[in-house]
TrEMBL record:
The chain crosses the membrane at residues 36-57, 63-82, 89-108, 114-131, 163-180. It is a multi-pass membrane protein. Its main location: membrane. Keywords: Membrane, Transmembrane, Transmembrane helix. Residues 54-175 form the Integral membrane bound transporter domain. This is Uncharacterized membrane protein YgaE, UPF0421/DUF939 family. The lineage of its organism: Bacteria, Bacillati, Actinomycetota, Actinomycetes, Micromonosporales. The keyword Transmembrane applies. InterPro entries: Memb_transporter_dom (IPR049453).
Amino acid sequence: MAIPGGRGREPGHFAGRFGQARVQSAVRRFLATRQLTAIALLSAQGGLATAAAWIVASDFLGQDAPVFAPVAALATIASATGQRARQTVELLIGVGLGITVADALLYLVGSGAWQIALVVSASIALGLLVAGRSGALVSQAGATATLFATLAGNQRSLELPRIIDAAVGASIGFLAVALLRPVDPLRAVDRAAKPFFTDLAAAIHTTARALATGDRNLAVRALDSLDKIDMDTVRLNEALQAAEETVSIAPWWRHRRRRYQQYRAAVDQLGAFTTDIRVMARRVATLLEYQEPVPPPLHQAIDTLGDALAHLHRDCTTARASGRTRQAVLDAARLAGHASRHQTCTFGETVMLQIRSAASDLLRATDVTPQEANHLVRDAATKPDDAR
């Protein structure tokens, strides 16, 4: 049977076009998951830093074959963003440790295959004793000992020059990170913050909906969804750690410090808030299981608490305190106070207390002192029903 408009075309032609489209789509998805700008930047930083480290160490300091300078520069740049300072210190200690152990043992036992094995094993063992399982120090001590044992031969007194090489390389690596304009550090924080705030707010709103409808299964699903918040928190803290490093050493992004500090202050307080929400969701599920009476203001208070978290996210993203976060938090506390004047039982009272505790912690995330936060929440919760 002929295909309309397809005369002269074999079935394989359409399959080929379909396969080509799938390949192109796969390539686009692959590239979309790779941050090409960041890759290009890291590559340029690595290449320029290693060349600069070699030139400084050999031409300006007169070091002979300063192999450790470019190695240290590259290791500094390749270190996990946000951990460069710590890992660079470990790198320098590892270099010194590896050189010292290699030099001492080679002097005593000479050079050769089994001597290299002894030197490397001793360096790694000493590194583990010094730093536990710190990967940067241990791996650098072993790698340095290997290079030193195989390339340095029986030459003596190379410890200080090679440590200077490593220090020069690490310093140039830091300069490369600071001076070669990096990607906006807060962009990564925004990406990491979105799932954290969105998932947590969704769990709060779902808990409120479960309470309003009396659906215990929905409350359990909301509680289960909070498990993924832990990973969201880890990713957000890693992004903040990386941003702190960049806004501290890169002059291009010093103007981002205020927004970073606002994010950092908020996230530092949101750990306690997340714990409050987890306890509250568990108590809501139990309340519904025991079919305790639920006053209408209770689910409204929880829902308003979710709105307050969304407002805080917008404030952090825009670096402006709109005042809507604090107002929503106090509204949640006020509604919880209204609920307490209705008939409630044990778990209902516990939910109200958790709402007030969460409200206080969320207020602290807006740069309110603990004492002031507790005072504001208490005042809001004790207001008459007709007051705002």
